Amino acid sequence: MLREEIKGEHMSETYKQMWQELGLDLNAHDMLLNVLGKAYQDIYLAQKNRPSGMGYFDFVMSEVHGLRIKELMDEKAAGRKIIGAYCVFVPEEIVKAADATLVGLCAGADFATDEAEKLLPRNTCALIKSAFGFKLGKVCPYIESSDMIVGENTCDGKKKAYESLKNLIPNLYVMDMPQMKSAEGRSLLKAEYFRFMEAVEKLTGIKIDAARLKKGIAIVNNKRKAIHRLMALRKAKPAPISGLDALLANQVFFYDDSVRFTDSVNKICDELEKRVEQKQGVFPANTPRILLSGCPMAVPNWKLPWIIETSGAVIVGEESCVGERGNRNLTDDSGNTVEQLMDAMIDRYFKIDCAVFTPNSDRLNHIEEMAKTYQADGVIHYGLQFCQPYLMEAIPVEKALESKNIPTLRIDTDYSMEDMGQLKTRVEAFVEVLK
After folding, report:
1. I want to staple 97 with a disulfide (CB 3.0 to 4.6 A). Which of 194, 216, 296, 428 is the partner?
2. What residues are paired with 380 via a beta bridge?
3. How many CA atoms lie within 13 Å of 64's alpha carbon, on the beta-carbon side?
4. How far is Cα 262 from Cα 403, in angstroms, rounded to an integer?
């Protein structure tokens, strides 16, 4: 279990000392946790008929900056390394093969935006500004506890932003990413993954051999299998779990202990299978079903899903890096050498149809396929303001889907709450059309 021998006042004091040693701004951090806690209560705990297994994820979120950080600090004290990442293209299998831990980094809310905009243009996408804000505001213990932070040149915004972030984070490692689905693009990814493996070996002092790599692949594949099982159960009518709760599981995927996370998701699936058998849903069977497509949603980016599911609809799938796009495929573990296993891993990650790629017809095909598989009545395409790759793809996606008689709504927004009323009006109108 995640809960340890820390209780009551001692727990709070232990955390404060730990946060202080990490260099966090305690006042700003308290403010962040208060806002996060209130949002979680209003959005998640206000839901009805939730699976009892979600209690584990409620606990994880209540301790996401507490017990989980203490676990990471205990790992560091035992000699293990912590590696932070912003993107699903950072291969967790390699990190696990070196007995290290990969964690997702804070980038899902507005924080210290004024400070971030001293280093970045105002029309920079919210996710990039958020990453800077969490660092400048000294409120992300995941950043401060990481021995290496991995950035990746997926989009032009990130590519240039990392030049400035390097001045704030001296342990930043930048991975170059291909932009075309071609033989040359795959060769670049292969070179970068081997370079990353060497950097991880140097950081940890552990030489990665085939046995270690097989073990890392198995751990990560098991996480993905559990998520695949959860996603498959959402195809049922009525939906046995809300889109908000399924999104939370996808978000916790990047933070929690891998084995514990896998067990917890499988326990929820056991419960959901019984719900499906009994035709028990979180919403009535005739509730319009939405496929949410587009930009990834990191904690605590719950605004749009909450609006959708309080507007008479249910989200049944996420075509997102924090969702099916990020976890769609497993890594083939049948190879017997490092070269064979790395080739299989590269094949797996090269299939991710992120909007940074050109051409990117696979993504459109997957959206259509998911809409059909999950029996979605409509698609909402979510784009973060100033996120050029997804905003550029949004219009052709909308036109292609509507040519197949799949109703589509494009939503462009950021992390602020200022457009809540406008978004709710638009979503409610779309849901009425679906009804």
Report:
1. 216
2. 292, 409
3. 27
4. 39
Name the more confident of 3 and 201. 201
For residue 20, how many C-alpha atoms fall within 13 Å in the half-sphere facing its CB?
7
Smallest CA-to-CA distance from 221 within 132, 399, 113, 91 is with: 91
Element (DSSP H or E) covering residue 86: none
Model pLDDT, residue 11: 53
Q: 387 falls in which pLDDT band (50, 70, 90)? A: very high
The three-class DSSP label of residue 101 is strand
Rounded CA separation 248/125 (Å)? 22
The rounded distance, in Å, linking the Cα atoms of 305 and 421 is 14
- Summarised one tens digit per residue, pLDDT across range 341-381 is 999 999 999 999 999 999 999 999 999 999 999 999 999 99
Q: Is 248 exposed, middle or buried (0-12, 13-18, 19+ CB in 10 A)?
A: buried
- State the pLDDT at residue 1: 37
Instruction: Give the N- to C-terminal CA distance of the chain in Å, as an integer.
Output: 43
- Domain membership of residue 4 (yes or no) is no
* DSSP assignments along 161-227, one per residue: HHHHHHHH-TTEEEEE---SSSHHHHHHHHHHHHHHHHHHHHHHT----HHHHHHHHHHHHHHHHHH
Confidence of residue 6 (pLDDT cuts 50, 70, 90): very low
Give the list of residues 6+ apart from residue 9 with CB closer than 8 angstroms, or none.
none
Q: Looking at the 3D structure of the chain, how many domains does it have? A: 1
Structure tokens at 157: 């915004």
φ, ψ dihedrals at 323, nearest 5°: 160, -150
Q: Taking the CB of residue 10, how many other CB atoms lie within 10 A of it?
A: 10
Residue 3 has pLDDT above 60, yes or no: no
Average pLDDT over residues 2-8: 39
Within-domain flag for 8: no
Answer whether residue 235 is part of any domain: yes
Residue 268 lies in a domain: yes
Q: Output the CA–CA distances (angstroms, integers) from residue 144 to 64, 148, 187, 340, 371, in the order listed.
A: 14, 10, 33, 35, 40
Q: Which domain holds residue 372?
A: 13-434
CA distances from residue 187 to 176, 328, 334, 340 in whole angstroms, order as listed: 12, 22, 21, 15
112: tokens are 């210290």
